[in-house]
Amino acid sequence: MKYFKFLTILLAVVLVSIFLVGCQEEKELETKPANESEIVEESSESTETTTSETESETTELVLYFSDGQAMYLLPEKRKVPKTETPAQAAIEELIKGPEEAEHVSTIPEGTKLNGVNVEDETAYVDFSEEFKENYQLGSAAEIMTVYSLVNTLTEFPTIKKVKFLINGESLEIEGSNFDFKTQEFSRNADLIE
Questions:
Q1: Quick one: three-class SS letters along 99-155?
Q2: Fewer CB within a 10 Å sphere, N or C end of the chain?
């Protein structure tokens, strides 16, 4: 019986010792200052991941807006969220207008985009009625409107020509210098400054 009591006390002492040693190590871990270089490395890794994720989640577009004299098209780069329809995103950004002060919007006011369909390297761009209603006649204004769209869309390698539609039908504008009904427009790099 004395032997059993001795073993019980010995076991209790060993368990208490183990418990106290474990608590002491945990306390040291809590109060031990963190290694600053480890923190910096972790920080820079998470920043790099965020930056590369952000870059992979955006698309850079090149949009063309008119200069103040309606003589040249000025490029403007813009990052937008990555999309399956970048041509549509580019036109929607053109409709929003320029961000740079010296650039002038070219899309008729109130215009909405119904959609873009690309077939055999031709983009069929379908606008709302406001495109036709607010379209500015005159060679300089027309050239800026048409070629800001055409040059923006032909930045995409899959698009070589652009055809304009209004609510799914061929566009006709009386008095225009362009025959929208039959004409498909190609890139005009001479207008780009």
A1: CCCCCECCCCCCCCEEEEEEECCEEEEEECHHHHHCCCCCHHHHHHHHHHHHHHHCC
A2: N
Q: Is 176 helix (H, G, I), strand (E, B) or coil?
A: coil
* 117 within 8 A of 126, measured Cβ to Cβ: yes
Report the distance separating Cα 93 and Cα 107, nearest Å. 10
Element counts in the chain: helices (H) and strands (E): 5, 7
pLDDT digits (tens, 9 = 90+) for 53-89: 445 799 999 999 999 999 999 999 999 999 999 999 9
Phi, psi of 81 (to 5 degrees): -60, 140
pTM as predicted = 0.71
Q: What are phi and psi of 100, to 5 degrees?
A: -90, 140
Locate 122 and state its tokens: 């031709």
Task: Round to whole Å and give the CA distance between 13 and 143.
Answer: 94
Question: How many other CB atoms are there within 10 angstroms of residue 10's CB atom?
Answer: 10
DSSP 80: E
Phi first, then psi: what are they for 173, rounded to 5°?
Answer: -125, 115
